[in-house]
């Protein structure tokens, strides 16, 4: 399938717009072609199976009749097959006009559907404060149980007549903070995850995701019966420091034996539930187990294995792995990684196993007898749960996400009369809840089980959705063959969190809305110059919604399932640590031994069993079986014997915090190389010897200008020796914003921080342009996500820039591209294999290159706002009043510090991003009129008049 342009996208947004048009649990119809483009570069066809019914998840909140819940994560069918439960565990927060959370309108939900007539009919939406993935019925079918995630609880619901209601208070499991880093315990809270009910219906076993243990509960008595630590060293001193049992997740019970999935350590822990809790065995697995399902007799346990895309079959009698089923995408899947199996269901006759594949938006149909994959069924975005109807005729599938669509109200609603008239009448609250995770909605589909002939056609649809680029054409092969002979170095710069409109909406070309531009040319002259001098990519999308998903997509072209499941509740402040960049529970798990960890970070707990071994719960595998946790761009470059240098990617940030009275805290040195002070400790083993120790990682107090200076120091050495690495990774993060009260050199307002970032980018490009490497170095610049700004086209549309030889000059490229396409392009330029199914079939960005453009130049521009700081920039005129009016505000650091008091900027996105967005808009643009028409319109035409009108408004 060819590339979709903007106009095609706007006619086919399913579930982002289609589901939003429905109310309650009413069925909705997809667009005519049934195909929707996703920011991952794939497409989806949620209603491809004839007779499919798509349902929304509307909890019926008072005052918000159109509100739909996000991130459905589990589905369970009652023992009698009449009731279907759907559990959410996501963002699901609503804010008032002041930007404060409304507790009574913010929570997770269990949706109760009556499925006796086939088509699900919503009967109830039960509210729970917090939930994770645990959901199970009691054998009597009159009770069910939900794990409370970060609340560390289990809630029981009971059926009274035709209605379900909570049975007593939630059962507190009373765990301490998770087994993470000392002095950072609040960053690793406990988390009740998977659970299962014993056959007698009296007891529950709950996995303690944050404490590496399981808890046995007598639910009727509301009493904890016992707890069992799953780590080997806790039971045998000879095994201290041995891996095992960490991040327990899914649970299954057969008789008096339980099976618990240890996601990080890739094993099943087998537990005796008899007279005392004890570990019977450990069953090693190739992949990360994230779903368990027993057959009726309990003789076989099916295990979904993420990262290796297999289903393991466990013989429960002998307690060993009997065989594995390799899932695949058909004949176009090289490599076969990234399918992300994450939920399982059996047909009533147990002849067919269904596996939801979150990575490719499909359900695999597997014949149990021989493990043969019979075909694939298309679904909506990121399926997470499945259940087969009791008669075997229908399949129920939950999905976590939908395309977000435009978010022009993002950052808008705070409070006060200055906002009057900014939103359409009656829509103020809705417009103020336009954060990307709020706009992505969960769903439920009922689809008839397809017959074998139809399954072949449906499989082809899944292939078309996920493999639009089957092979390079002759032109592409010639282009990249030539580029590989001419481009010998690639510098990959990742920035943070901005949308296209927010930065480039005021360009003279392209589809930007200047009315939504918060950091225009006066603040970001270098990004504007790069877009105008080279290529303006005005239809480019970040594949990840937030940094937690954006960084995995930006460096590995995919996420793992545990990332998808933990990121939404974490961003809703419902627990969990940020595990997307090499630390787990804030522990540097890139270092295998306790001594190595303590040498790198004195805050490390003196306990060898805290996340023992070098294993990362969230890491992607490489494309082959012998490449566990080696699925990132630099891993492939190293496999191809290419040199790599890292500046700020995957750094242990705990050495930068807490800010005061912290043993071993790293000082804020502008030039740490001058004193030999190490300020960067990498978290990925592959980067350990390839990281500049003097390049500071994510730290909002520290200007990007000094990061550039440190990069330039090493670059000068490479220029002298002629040894510039083949691939350089550079993190310039100061457009993330924050820490206004403690920032260095007056870089302490949103405008100065974004300008600092812009200037550092410009200086780096200028330095390369005037070096011996100008002729053979490609510079690629991208935002990891676009969560912190408004955009009239899509909440995930963002800024991507390229500079260097053979990049087109003075061009606007409106081809729809995504992060995956950018990764594929870099791989082709470097001569690397694809990492997984997503980048293997992505579209290389061929139309940004011109082999005739070998000569280029670039001169960095000092943003005038920086001249009011103490940053050592060249002298010049300060920012003019007119520029200030269109590109900022008169608020000083003290104002921004007050407005953001209590926000935690220490780690990527620990701050409440949705609230911060409102603070930024209110402080920067509260006196600007806000256009009301925001429907993804094409604004490429009449740019001079549009920009003139915007300039006139913003200056008056």
Task: Summarize the entry for a quick read.
The protein has 956 residues and is α+β, with helices and mostly antiparallel strands. Among the domains are: 1-67 and 338-418 and 439-468, Beta Barrel (Thrombin, subunit H), CATH 2.40.10.500; 488-556 and 625-806 and 823-852 and 861-899, Alkaline Phosphatase, subunit A (3-Layer(aba) Sandwich), CATH 3.40.720.
3D architecture notes:
The chain has 956 residues and is of the alpha+beta class. Helix 14 runs parallel beside helix 15. The protein has a five-stranded antiparallel beta sheet with strand order 1-4-32-31-30. The two termini are 48 Å apart. Helix content is 20%, strand content 23%. The N terminus is likely disordered.
Throw out a few tags for this protein.
5-stranded antiparallel beta sheet, alpha+beta, Thrombin, subunit H, 21 helices, disordered N terminus, 23% strand, Alkaline Phosphatase, subunit A, 956 residues, 20% helix
Detail the topology: elements first, then pairings.
Blueprint: H1 6-10, H2 18-21, E1 27-28, E2 36-37, E3 43-44, E4 53-55, E5 72-77, E6 83-88, E7 108-114, E8 121-128, E9 135-137, E10 143-147, E11 153-160, E12 163-166, E13 171-172, E14 192-197, E15 203-208, E16 213-218, E17 223-229, E18 248-254, E19 257-262, E20 267-272, E21 278-284, E22 288-294, E23 300-306, E24 310-315, E25 320-326, E26 341-346, E27 352-357, E28 362-367, E29 372-378, E30 383-388, E31 394-399, H3 428-432, H4 436-439, E32 443-448, H5 452-466, H6 474-486, E33 489-495, H7 500-504, H8 525-533, E34 535-537, E35 540-541, H9 547-556, H10 561-571, E36 583-584, E37 587-588, H11 594-600, H12 633-639, E38 644-647, H13 672-675, H14 704-721, E39 727-731, H15 750-769, E40 777-783, E41 800-803, E42 811-813, E43 817-818, H16 819-830, H17 837-840, H18 881-887, H19 893-899, H20 913-925, H21 943-954
Parallel strand pairs: 33-39, 33-40, 34-42, 35-43, 38-39
Antiparallel strand pairs: 1-4, 2-3, 4-32, 5-6, 6-7, 7-8, 9-10, 10-11, 11-12, 11-13, 14-15, 15-16, 16-17, 18-19, 19-20, 20-21, 22-23, 23-24, 24-25, 26-27, 27-28, 28-29, 30-31, 31-32, 36-37, 40-41
Helix pairs in contact: 8-15, 14-15
């Amino acid at each position: 399938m060819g590339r979709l342009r903007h106009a095609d996208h706007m006619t086919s947004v399913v579930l982002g717009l289609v589901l939003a048009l429905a109310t309650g649990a009413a069925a909705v119809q997809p667009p005519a072609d049934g195909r929707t483009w996703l920011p991952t570069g794939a497409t989806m066809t949620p209603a491809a199976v004839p007779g499919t019914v798509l349902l929304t998840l509307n909890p019926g909140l008072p005052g918000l009749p159109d509100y739909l819940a996000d991130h459905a994560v589990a589905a369970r069918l009652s023992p009698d097959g009449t009731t279907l439960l759907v559990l959410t565990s996501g963002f699901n927060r609503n804010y008032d006009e002041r930007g404060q959370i409304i507790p009574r309108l913010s929570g997770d939900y269990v949706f109760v559907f009556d499925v006796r007539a086939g088509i699900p009919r919503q009967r109830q939406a039960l509210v729970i404060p917090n939930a994770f993935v645990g959901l199970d019925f009691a054998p009597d079918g009159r009770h069910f149980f939900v794990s409370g995630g970060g609340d560390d609880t289990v809630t029981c619901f009971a059926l009274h007549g035709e209605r379900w209601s909570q049975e007593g208070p939630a059962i507190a499991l009373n765990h301490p903070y998770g087994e993470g880093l000392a002095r950072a315990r609040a960053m690793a809270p406990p988390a009740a995850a998977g659970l299962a009910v014993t056959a007698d219906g009296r007891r529950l076993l709950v996995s303690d995701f944050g404490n590496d243990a399981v808890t046995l509960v007598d639910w009727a008595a509301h009493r904890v019966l016992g707890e069992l630590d799953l780590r080997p060293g806790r039971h045998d001193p000879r095994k201290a420091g041995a891996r095992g049992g960490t991040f327990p997740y899914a649970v299954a019970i057969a008789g008096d034996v339980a099976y618990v999935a240890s996601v990080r350590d890739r094993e099943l822990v087998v537990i005796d539930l008899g007279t005392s809790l004890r570990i019977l065995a450990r069953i090693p697995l190739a992949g990360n187990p994230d779903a368990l399902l027993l057959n009726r007799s309990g003789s076989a346990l099916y295990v979904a294995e993420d990262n290796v895309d297999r289903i393991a079959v466990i013989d429960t009698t002998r307690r060993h792995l009997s065989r594995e089923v390799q899932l695949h995408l058909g004949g176009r899947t090289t490599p076969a990684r990234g399918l992300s199996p994450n939920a399982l269901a059996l047909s009533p006759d147990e002849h067919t196993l269904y596996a939801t594949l979150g990575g490719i938006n499909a359900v695999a149909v597997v014949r149990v007898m021989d493990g043969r994959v019979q075909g694939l069924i298309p679904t909506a975005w990121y399926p997470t749960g499945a259940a087969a109807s009791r008669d075997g005729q229908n399949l129920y599938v939950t999905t976590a996400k939908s395309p977000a669509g435009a978010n022009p109200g993002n950052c808008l609603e705070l409070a006060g009369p200055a906002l009057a008239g900014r939103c359409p009448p009656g829509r103020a609250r809705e417009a103020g809840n336009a954060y990307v995770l709020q706009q992505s909605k969960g769903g439920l589909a009922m689809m008839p089980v397809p017959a074998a002939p139809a399954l072949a056609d449906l499989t082809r649809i899944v292939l078309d959705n996920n493999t639009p680029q089957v092979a390079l054409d002759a032109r592409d092969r010639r282009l990249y063959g030539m580029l590989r002979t001419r481009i010998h170095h690639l510098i990959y710069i990742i920035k943070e969190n901005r949308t296209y409109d927010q930065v480039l909406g005021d360009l003279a070309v392209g589809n930007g809305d200047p009315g939504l531009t918060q950091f225009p040319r006066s603040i970001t002259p270098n990004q504007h110059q790069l877009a105008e001098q080279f290529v303006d990519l005005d239809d480019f999308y970040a594949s990840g919604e937030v940094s937690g998903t954006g960084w995995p997509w930006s460096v590995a072209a995919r996420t793992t399932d545990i990332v998808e499941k933990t990121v939404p509740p974490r961003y809703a402040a419902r627990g969990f640590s940020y595990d997307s960049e090499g630390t787990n529970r804030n522990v540097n798990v890139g270092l295998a031994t306790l001594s190595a960890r303590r040498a790198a970070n004195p805050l490390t707990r003196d306990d060898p069993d805290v996340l023992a071994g070098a294993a990362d719960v969230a890491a992607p595998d490489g494309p082959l079986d012998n490449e566990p946790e080696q699925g990132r761009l630099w891993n492939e470059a190293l496999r191809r014997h290419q040199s790599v240098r890292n500046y700020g990617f995957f750094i242990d940030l705990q050495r930068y915090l807490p800010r005061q009275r912290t043993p071993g805290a790293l000082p804020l040195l502008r030039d740490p190389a001058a004193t030999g002070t190490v300020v960067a400790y990498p978290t990925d083993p592959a980067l350990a010897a390839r990281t500049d120790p003097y390049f500071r990682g994510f730290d909002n107090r520290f200007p990007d200008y000094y990061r550039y200076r440190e990069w330039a120091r090493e670059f000068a050495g490479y220029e002298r020796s002629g040894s510039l690495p083949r691939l350089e990774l550079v993190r310039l993060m100061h457009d993330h914003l924050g820490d206004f009260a403690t920032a260095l050199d007056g870089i302490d307002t949103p405008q100065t921080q974004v300008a600092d970032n812009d200037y550092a980018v410009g200086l780096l490009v200028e330095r390369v342009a005037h070096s011996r490497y100008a002729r053979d170095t490609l510079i690629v610049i991208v935002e990891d996500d676009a969560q912190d700004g408004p955009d009239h086209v899509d909440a995930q549309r963002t800024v991507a820039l390229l500079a260097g030889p053979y990049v087109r000059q003075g061009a606007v490229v409106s081809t729809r591209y995504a992060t995956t396409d950018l990764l594929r392009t870099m791989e082709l330029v470097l001569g690397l294999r694809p990492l997984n199914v997503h980048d293997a079939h992505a579209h290389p960005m061929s139309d940004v290159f011109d082999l005739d453009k070998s000569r280029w130049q670039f001169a960095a521009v000092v943003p005038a706002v920086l001249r009011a700081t103490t940053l050592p920039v060249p002298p010049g005129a300060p920012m003019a009043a007119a520029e200030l009016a269109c590109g900022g505000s008169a608020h000083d650091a003290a104002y921004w510090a007050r407005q953001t008091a209590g926000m935690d900027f220490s780690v990527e996105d620990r701050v409440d991003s949705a609230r911060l967005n409102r603070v930024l808009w209110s402080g920067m643009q509260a006196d600007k009129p806000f256009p009301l028409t925001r429907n993804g319109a094409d604004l490429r035409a009449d740019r001079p008049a549009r920009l003139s009108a915007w300039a006139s408004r913003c200056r008056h």
